[in-house]
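I'd like us to work through together how a protein chain folds, taking it slowly. To get us started, please write out a protein record for me. Go ahead whenever you are ready, and we will take it from there:
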Amino acid sequence: MNYLKYTQYVYLAFCGFFIYDSFTKYNSGESPWISIMIAAVSLFMFFFRRNYAKKFEKRNNNS
């Protein structure tokens, strides 16, 4: 279960990739909205998972 601390950073990597993808799509004249939405969801998931991991760690330390 120790790997769960590091999986939250995968969401940041996805966010960075999709922000880059949205810039390249915007510069080529395509619609970047899908990439922007996926980047926003992955950024939300990063903060959600980070908060959840802190709560989980705090609960384990109290037990």
Remarks:
- DSSP finds two helices and no strands in the chain.
- Residues 26 and 32 are 6 Å apart (CA to CA).
